[in-house]
Design a protein that fits this description.
single chain, alpha/beta, Transcription Regulator spoIIAA, 5-stranded mixed β-sheet, 4 helices, 5 strands, 38% helix, globular
Length: 131
């Protein structure tokens, strides 16, 4: 499959490309569900920021994926929905029932319990302990 799924601790992270046909969406959902069970993932982040169009089939697939993941003990966050996609879903009356969303991937990872560690300042002073 062309959609990579990366494991970060007990969270699976994946992203969907701009063009997502029905077959790819189905294969993606099946593979991700299998990985959730096999790796005992407690969370899944699906970044859809590159999707410009979400049709009724993809919306249903995301809803079913979220339901299957919950049944397997994992929480799914769909992150990065573009405003035109949200508008289209609302205009068509399509609801992502049971799907949690986040503004972006970083926010989604925070919801799943990951926290951004601040970088140490570059060229900062080195601390030494005296003993």
């Amino acid at each position: 499959m062309d959609v990579p799924i990366v494991r970060l601790g007990d969270v699976l992270v994946t992203g969907l490309a701009n063009e997502l046909d029905d077959k790819t969406a189905t294969v993606f959902a099946e593979e991700l569900t299998e990985r959730i069970a096999a790796e005992r993932a407690r969370g899944v982040l699906v970044d859809i920021s590159r999707l410009e169009i979400v049709d009724s089939f993809v919306a249903r697939t995301l809803t079913e994926l979220s339901t299957m993941a919950r049944l397997l003990g994992a929480r799914v966050i769909v992150a990065g929905m573009q405003p035109p996609v949200a508008i289209t879903l609302a205009e068509l009356g399509l609801q992502l029932t049971g799907v949690e969303t986040a503004l972006n991937a970083e926010q989604g990872m925070t919801v799943l319990g990951w926290h951004h560690a601040p970088r140490p300042p570059e060229g900062g002073t080195r601390r030494e302990t005296l003993g």
